[in-house]
Model the fold of this input.
Amino acid sequence: MSRLKENMKFSLLSLTLLLLLLLDLRADYLYGIPFSHMILEIILFFICLVGFSYFSDLALKQYKNQNQRLLKLQENIQKKDNQLSSLSKKVKSYKEEFRAEIENTFRQWGFTRAEAEVASLLLKGLSTKEVAELRHSNEQTVRSQCSSIYKKSKLENRSQLSSYFLDDLI
Done:
């Protein structure tokens, strides 16, 4: 970006010098200054004109190049956003399928609605105390439901319950 700014500054400086030289040439002509003096100013005028053309062209090319890079970056961002959206939908779909599979397994094991809810909360990592608080029930009731869950599923503890579902994912 700094090269573009530098070239724009040189271009504006050249343009300013061009205008000043034009004003000076006009004044010299009106006041009858000898042509030999004006020749030097005319040469300077053309040097400034070349400088203005060169730096303006360079700045324009750099500006276009930056715009093209910016457009490519915007396209890449859009592609990545689309990929992220697609992946998010897939993850959501997989999550729903996984949840349905867990619920189906709970039904196969013969869990009651309450046991299925407790088992789901255990899979999420909640303690029996947290499950009891969340369900507005007694902790002893939750412990009893846990025992029933482990018995029906033929698993020994919470770790085995989690492993049963997570082993296939890892």
